[in-house]
Amino acid sequence: MSKITLGILGGGQLGSMLSVAAKKLDIKTIIYCDDQKAPSQNFCDDFIYAEYNDKNKIYEFAKKVDYITYEFENIPFETLNELNKLKTVSPKPSVNRLIQHRLAEKDFINKLNIRTTRYVNVKSKEDLLPLDDFLPGILKTTTMGYDGKGQYPIKDISEINSLNIDFKNDYILEKLVKLKKEISVIITRFGNNKYEIYEPIENTHKDQILKHSKIPAEISKKLFNQSKEWAIMIAEELKYIGTLCIEFFIDRNDNLYVNEIAPRVHNSGHLTINAYNVSQFENHIRAVCFLEQIKLKKLFNAEMNNIIGDEIITYRENLKLNKNQFFFDYLKKDIKEKRKMGHLTTLK
Ligand code: ADP
Ligand code: MG
C-alpha cells in the first residue's frame, strides 16, 4: 500500500504533536501555515508557508495530500470548503463554521438541552447598557478568540467606557459562573456511535490560560458520567470525525455547564500521550485517515503543567527529569509573555 499523506492546516504545537503521532503510524504530514516561524515545521515532513486564502497555494497543498485536517479553528470557512471539494476534510467544514462562532456554538448546545452560561449577543455600547442582569460577566468576541484573547471581564456597567471596546467586532456577553472547577472531556469519533472517549480531565487556568491538567478529576460520579454523556451527544449531533474537546464549568452548587467546544485536539489532552495506550493525537490521525479504531485504555494517572513565557528558560537550561516525567519543548524561537512554550507531564 502506498503511504498516506495527511495535510494539516495550522502550524502550532498541536500540529507538531499530530505530526509526531502520524510518523508513528507511518503517515506523512504536510503542514500549511500562515506563520513563517511555525514551530511544527520542526516535526512535519513538508511545510507550506502561505496565507489561508491563497487559492493557488491551497490548490497545490490539496494536490499533495490524501486527507486534510486542521489544528486550530480560526481558518476561513471558504478555505476549508474549497479544500473539501478536492480531498476529504475532517472534521467537516460546517462543523468548524458553527464552532468558530461563539453565539452559533452556544445556540447549538442549548438546542440539545445542554446547559451553558447565560449569554446575549452584543453589537454596540448601547446594547450593553441594559444588561446589568448579565453582570458580573465576560464580554467575548464572537470569533477569533483563544487563550483569553478578545475578552473583557466586566463587573459593573460603569466600567464600559474605560475598557476601550472595539465595536467593529461582534460580541457575546456571558454571565460569570462562580467556578468551583473546570474539566474537559476529549472524545474521538470514527463514525455513527463509534467513538473512543477519555475520562474527564480537571483543569486549572491562570489569566484565562490553561496552566495545569490532571486525571483523575476530583468530581462526583454523577458529573463524571454527565460530562461524558454530553460530550457523546455533541459529537454524535455534529456527526464529527476526529478528536473533539468539550470544556466544562462546574459551579459551587455542582451544576455542570458546557463552556465551549474545541473542534480539534486540545491542550488539556497532552497528558494522553503518556497516560493512555492511544493519545488524542494518534486517535485523531486514525479517525481522519480512516484507520482502525483501537480500544482505549488508561495506563496511568497523570498531571500536566503548561510552561508559559520565560518559564521555558529554566527548563531548557538545567532540567533533571525523573523516569515518570516527560518534557516537551515546542521549539518556539521567540519567547513571549503568556505564550505556551512547552509542557511537562508527570505520571502518577
Ligand atoms: P478561550 O476561547 O480563550 O479558551 P474561554 O471561553 O474558554 O475562551 O475562556 C477562557 C477561560 O476564562 C475559561 O476556561 C474560564 O477559566 C474563564 N471564563 C470564561 N468565561 C467564563 C464565564 N462565563 N464564567 C467564569 N469563567 C469564565
Ligand atoms: Mg477555552
Can you walk through the features of this model?
The structure is a single chain. By secondary structure, the protein is of the alpha+beta class. Helix content is 26%, strand content 30%. It is built from 10 helices and 18 strands. The chain has helices at residues 13-24, 55-64, 77-86, 93-99, 102-111, 125-128, 221-237, 272-275, 280-288, 311-317; strands spanning 5-9, 28-33, 46-49, 67-70, 88-89, 119-122, 137-141, 151-154, 171-175, 179-191, 194-197, 201-206, 209-215, 242-251, 256-262, 302-308, 325-329, 340-347. The strands form 3 sheets. Strands 10, 11, 12, 13, 14, 15, 16, 17 and 18 form a 9-stranded antiparallel β-sheet that branches. The longest helix is centred in the middle third of the chain and has 17 residues, at 221-237. The N and C termini lie far apart (40 Å). The mean pLDDT is 95. Bound molecules: adenosine-5'-diphosphate and magnesium ion. Residues 117, 138, 145-148, 174, 176-177, 179, 182, 205, 208, 247, 259-260 line the site of adenosine-5'-diphosphate (ADP).
In brief:
By secondary structure, the chain is of the alpha+beta class. It has helices at 13-24, 55-64, 77-86, 93-99, 102-111, 125-128, 221-237, 272-275, 280-288, 311-317; strands spanning 5-9, 28-33, 46-49, 67-70, 88-89, 119-122, 137-141, 151-154, 171-175, 179-191, 194-197, 201-206, 209-215, 242-251, 256-262, 302-308, 325-329, 340-347.
Overall spatial form: globular
Taking the alpha carbons of the first and last residues, their distance comes to 40 Å
The unreliable regions are none
List of distinct ligands in this structure: adenosine-5'-diphosphate, magnesium ion
